[in-house]
Automatic annotation (TrEMBL):
<dbReference type="Pfam" id="PF04085">
    <property type="entry name" value="MreC"/>
</dbReference>
<keyword id="KW-0472">Membrane</keyword>
<comment type="function">
    <text>Involved in formation and maintenance of cell shape.</text>
</comment>
<keyword id="KW-1133">Transmembrane helix</keyword>
<dbReference type="GO" id="GO:0008360">
    <property type="term" value="P:regulation of cell shape"/>
</dbReference>
<dbReference type="InterPro" id="IPR042177">
    <property type="entry name" value="Cell/Rod_1"/>
</dbReference>
<feature type="domain" description="Rod shape-determining protein MreC beta-barrel core">
    <location>
        <begin position="129"/>
        <end position="275"/>
    </location>
</feature>
<dbReference type="GO" id="GO:0005886">
    <property type="term" value="C:plasma membrane"/>
</dbReference>
<protein>
    <recommendedName>
        <fullName>Cell shape-determining protein MreC</fullName>
    </recommendedName>
</protein>
<dbReference type="InterPro" id="IPR007221">
    <property type="entry name" value="MreC"/>
</dbReference>
<dbReference type="InterPro" id="IPR055342">
    <property type="entry name" value="MreC_beta-barrel_core"/>
</dbReference>
<feature type="transmembrane region" description="Helical">
    <location>
        <begin position="12"/>
        <end position="34"/>
    </location>
</feature>
<keyword id="KW-0133">Cell shape</keyword>
<feature type="region of interest" description="Disordered">
    <location>
        <begin position="278"/>
        <end position="313"/>
    </location>
</feature>
<keyword id="KW-0812">Transmembrane</keyword>
<feature type="compositionally biased region" description="Polar residues">
    <location>
        <begin position="303"/>
        <end position="313"/>
    </location>
</feature>
<dbReference type="InterPro" id="IPR042175">
    <property type="entry name" value="Cell/Rod_MreC_2"/>
</dbReference>
Length: 313
């Protein structure tokens, strides 16, 4: 037997390790047999896994949080872009819808104008309104037709509802129309209910006509329809002009004052008609111009006749 310096056996430490290994192997064999027969180790592993599982979740929280934040940011950006695109699509759809509604209204107005043209059986010209001035001292329209299209000063302008005014200025490509509501404008009218003839003047009130020369004894009521009388030869007779909305006596007590709303749609008119057929004059005929005595009574004629008479003798 080999001895060490301290007097112990050289193989005593190795023998102790070998014995421990044998004991461990025996315990492991026993545990394997017991696990194979009673499945006890599975239960132990299951319990240990339950105890260790929260540690796995705790260790994975930083990575899960990072992934969740990245997904949330990506989803938020995607939702923001989709929301922006949806707002653009909504605005575009509303614009298209409004445009279609405007086109539908314009088509209806044009249909009314064409129906009016067929009903009138007159020579008319379609024009588009490009500017409108409804100030306190001037009510005018500017149309996209002028001298190149045959427009002349004095032509009557109407829409599907009634008379709007008359052309006062003509340029090569445009013309200016004075509306019947202009303070400087006047139009002869007739009350369709009573046949009363009077004159409707424009007023400083936007969209109103004023009638200031109605006799006190005249039968004028709110709701009476006024049409053009044709007097003066400028406006053709029978066209709708306005509807009386208010009647009251003047302070002097000599006349009645009435206000009327024009039949034509002044503020929303986009297209109008210009009458090319001038109204026939209504009233006494114009006096004949006197240029001198008839040719049969002229001095030269008398002299020539007497000379010819002497020659015949």
């Amino acid at each position: 037997m080999t001895l060490t310096r301290d007097g112990g056996s050289l193989f005593s430490a190795n023998m102790a390790g070998t014995l421990r290994l044998i004991v461990y192997l025996a315990i492991a064999s026993v545990l394997m047999v017991l696990d194979h027969r009673g499945h006890w180790m599975g239960k132990v592993r299951y319990g240990a896994a339950i105890v260790v599982e929260p540690l796995y979740h705790l260790a994975g929280l930083p990575a899960s949080g990072f992934r969740a934040a990245r997904v949330a940011f990506a989803d938020r950006r995607k939702l923001t872009e989709e929301n922006k695109q949806l707002r653009v699509d909504l605005l575009l759809a509303n614009a298209r819808l409004n445009h279609m509604a405007a086109v539908s209204r314009q088509n209806k107005r044009l249909k009314k104008l064409l129906d009016t043209r067929r009903q009138l059986g007159m020579n008319v010209q379609l024009a588009r309104v490009i500017d409108i001035d409804l100030g306190a001292f001037s009510h005018r329209l500017t149309l996209n037709t002028g001298a190149h299209q045959g427009v002349k000063v004095g032509q009557v302008v109407i829409d599907a509802h009634g008379i709007m005014g008359q052309v006062t200025q003509v340029l090569p490509g445009t013309c200016t129309v004075m509306l019947i509501t202009d303070p400087d404008h006047a139009i002869p009218v007739t009350d369709t209910r009573t046949g009363l003839r009077t004159v409707a003047h424009g007023s400083h009130e936007s969209g109103q006509l004023s009638l200031t020369t109605i006799p006190v004894s005249a039968d004028v009521r709110v709701g009476d329809k006024l049409v053009s009388s044709g007097l003066g030869g400028r406006f053709p007779p029978g066209f709708p002009v306005a509807t009386i909305t208010h009647v009251e006596p003047q302070l002097s007590g000599m006349f009645l004052t009435a206000r009327a709303k024009p039949s034509a749609d002044m503020q929303r008119a986009d297209e109008v008609l210009l009458l090319r057929d001038l109204a026939p004059p209504v009233g006494p005929p114009a006096p004949a111009s006197v240029d001198g005595p008839p040719r049969a009574l002229a001095p030269d004629a008398v002299g020539s006749s007497s000379t010819s008479a002497r020659r015949s003798r």
